[in-house]
Amino acid sequence: GQQVMQIPQYQHVQEGEDFTTYCNSSTTLSNIQWYKQRPGGHPVFLIQLVKSGEVKKQKRLTFQFGEAKKNSSLHITATQTTDVGTYFCAGGGSQGNLIFGKGTKLSVKP
Amino acid sequence: SAVISQKPSRDICQRGTSLTIQCQVDSQVTMMFWYRQQPGQSLTLIATANQGSEATYESGFVIDKFPISRPNLTFSTLTVSNMSPEDSSIYLCSARDWGEGTIYFGEGSWLTVV
Question: What are the CA-CA distances from residue A22 to residues A32, A64, A92 (Å)?
Fold first, then answer.
């Protein structure tokens, strides 16, 4: 079945450093969505990418969707303590559902 | 965007009992899903809730254990039956909106089985 691999599993950074998490799918995705989950919270939608090669920015966050629509990345510039949480990518499945990666847990040291 | 309300938000349940989780969306949505998230883990899809018909279950999940209803476009329930400690988890309702097909999540129901 479809699988979405996400790396790294954990990332510890100093405040102000950059952070990137990567997702790879075994199959071509119809779209990819990114979520952030704070400790004790639920996944909160960040963004959806649909087009091949698409790049979207939200302030310090940059999201990319690969040309083959099999990979994606989230890059955070100059991390802040408010960026702490687990970032999940989720690929659009053939049944309209989402297939989640295992997530990257980001910790930021002030 | 869709706002999704779940209840209960948290419960402690006795082994062998069943609990029904309710999910209400504030607007009509195309699809509704139920996910499980075990502590420190990613989200696993349990089933797709189909309006007026039986849910579509993923591998490893069965209707007898996780009966699901979706009587209309904005409401669904998930029952966790005959609970054991292994069922201790967060259960998340999600819905896909009509526009760009974004999937939103409720705040989750945190179940602890003792």
Answer: 12, 10, 16
**Residue contact B45–A98, C-beta within 8 A:** yes
The conformational region for residue B32 under phi > 0 = left, psi -120 to 50 = alpha, else beta, is beta
**In the prediction, which pLDDT does A98 show?**
84
Cβ-based neighbours of A70, under 8 Å, separated by 6 or more = A24, A25, A26, A27, A28, A29
**Searching chain B, which residue's CA lies closest to the CA of residue A88?**
B42
Binary contact (A99, B30; C-beta < 8 A): no
Average pLDDT, integer, range B85-103: 89
| Distance, CA of B73 to CA of B27 (rounded, Å) | 8
Report the distance separating Cα A57 and Cα A103, nearest Å.
20
Confidence of residue A40 (pLDDT cuts 50, 70, 90): confident
Greatest alpha-carbon span in chain A: 42
Nearest Cα residue to B55 out of B27, B39, B32: B32
Confidence of residue B42 (pLDDT cuts 50, 70, 90): very high
B101 vs A contacts (CB less than 8 Å): 31, 48, 92, 96
